[in-house]
Amino acid sequence: TESIHLILRHVATKCVAWLLKLMGIPVFSSGTSLEVEGGQLMVADACSGFSTLYAAITIAILTAYFCHSAWRRVLVLLIAVPLAIGVNIMRVLILTLLVNWFGLDVLATSAHELSGLLTFMIALPIIFILGKNPPEPIPPTIESRQ
Questions:
Q1: Residue 33: helix, strand or coil by DSSP?
Q2: Which domain covers residue 87, as residue numbers?
């Protein structure tokens, strides 16, 4: 899993650096570290998104098992990985923006810990919604047939 952590850390770092530049925010990135006006931060293993990825894949497999439709199964299974990576990139982006505006002390607050929980709260319901079976049509009653 170490190589997966490292790949996820690099992906998050590169994407966040690109997004910050797109937003006009000066950033220097090297390896898995980002330096903005408020300080330098390292995308550590704990922030790699591996836990979200693992949970998303697990939930996607379970959700796909209960899908009636084959295309929904495929959709749920295919969306899990990019969704987990995407929400983690947004997490790292938001934390980096907070560091840029308020300094490194923001990482010592509950915002840092809650942001990890937030990734689950975003990714997992999306997987459930995409895998949700449509309601069964209500059969016509005798009165409506006349």
A1: strand
A2: 2-133
